[in-house]
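[job 4471] stage=fold_predict status=RUNNING
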Amino acid sequence: MNANVANQGRLMQVLLAPQVSEKATMLADKYQQIVFHVTGDATKPEVKAAVELLFKVEVLGVQIANIKGKQKRFGKFTGRRKDWKKAYVALKPGQEINFMAGE
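[job 4471] inference complete, writing structure tokens
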């Protein structure tokens, strides 16, 4: 197996899900940015390559934020959700990702 095929397999696992929220929708409309949940060890070049590979669009830039897990209570016990990573992907002008294409 050559390095390109192994790398492509890794890129398929970097993006976990699109972030759907009011803030993400506002960013998409105003700045042509899409927000994704990504794996904890994802890097900016990996996220850029993964988005370009999966959605066939051109990426202008990537910003990554580490999100701390919230403190939650389960009865008298306190616990903590896992930390996770979020990527803001800016698309080049005229580019668009349509998540409803399969319907």
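[job 4471] summary: The first helix runs from residue 3 to 14.
[job 4471] exit 0
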